[in-house]
Amino acid sequence: MSENKIENRRPLSSRNNKWLAGFAAWLARKSFPTPNQISCLSMLFALFGAVALFFSQSISALIFCALMVQMRLLCNLFDGMVAVEGGKKTANGAIFNEFPDRVADSLFLIALGYATPFFWLGWLAALLAALTAYIRIFGGSLGLPQRFQGPMAKQQRMAAITVGCLLAAVEIYFNLTAYTLSATLIIITLGTAYTCYVRTMAISAELNSLEKQNEKVTR
Q: Per the confidence metrics, is the pTM higher than 0.85?
């Protein structure tokens, strides 16, 4: 794996967990599932969770959706660990590393929108989530390290949905209301929009810094 590709890998402390690393090593020794199949499996978990949230905001549906979010994140973790640490990278792995993420993000966020009175905000959140990835990859296309910072990157968005669903389940149990989901969606949307701004400004600052360095060299 090249140094540039290592730099462009999302930093995750969970990769150092011995239990998760052991399970990833066990998966790597199997012919099924491959890293790309694990990536696609994340979309399936996202679909299950999104359907549950879309059609029912019952306590069981909310808890199930929170569980599906975590299963999606585990897929995101294990596809990379099996591919990199397990030595099973493929030529088209970069495609499977990105495209299923965009689909999974959109499924959860759009479903969250329809679970609230603000369905359009779910679509906006999905668009902004895709934009954060576009900005990250755009920076990489300019030769800069890809930036995964938040405050509302993928991990933070999924954590917010998980916590939001669980709190909404508690809220419904005691009050039979569902304001928590709306608050969660608003926080995610605003946070994701700000993340787009932060990443764009970081890329701009780095490009300006490189330009100044080049000017000093040519003098």
A: yes
